[in-house]
Amino acid sequence: MKKLCLLVCMSLGLSATAVAEGDAEAGKAKSAVCAACHGPDGNSMIEMNPKIAGQHENYLVKQLQEFKLASKTGGEEGRNNAVMNGMAAPLSEQDMQDLAAYFSSQEMKPGETPEEYVEPGQALYQGGDEERGITACIACHGPKGNGMALAGFPDISGQHATYTEAQLKAFRSGQRHNDMNGMMRDIASKLTDEDITILSNYISGLH
Asked: How many other C-beta atoms lie within 10 A of the C-beta of residue 104?
């Protein structure tokens, strides 16, 4: 079983790596329009908007592709977001690859975890909850939240708690449905509001 999982991750990784072959310098020149929401280096100062600095290149390409798909299908397919759909709609594949290359080359500024969320957050992030069937976040995102680029799992470390909370709730409701094999929707469906608050704040301090 472990060998099978490894082969799946490797095949996902090879296909994902083949997608993103961008030019970071070209991406920097194209990124001016992104700065208002994400900051010039991808470190958004607005908590509802994600930090994308240092994010895996292939993951950024995938999200842009799916925002564009949502713009074409009225949100029926891809990842639906009123603002990002419009931003991604005119982008070519090369634009996406260049932007992803630029932002992935930047360094994310770490966040902080409020003291009251450290212990419960660590327990849920690292151990999950077997009784409720909640898989530990560490399984896909790693001990420091860096994810796995080859397998397509994003870096969630240092992310704004407000943004993470919104995404977990979107997965839980099914509003966001572009996760691999429905994995995030399955996990989020078992999380309470309190769980989501705890995890979002804990993840913010991972780096």
From this structure: 24
**pLDDT digit string, tens, across residues 24-81:** 999 999 999 999 999 999 999 999 999 999 999 999 999 999 999 999 999 999 999 9
Flag whether the pTM goes above 0.70.
yes
The three-point CA angle 108-111-114 to 5° equals 170
The pLDDT of residue 12 is 46
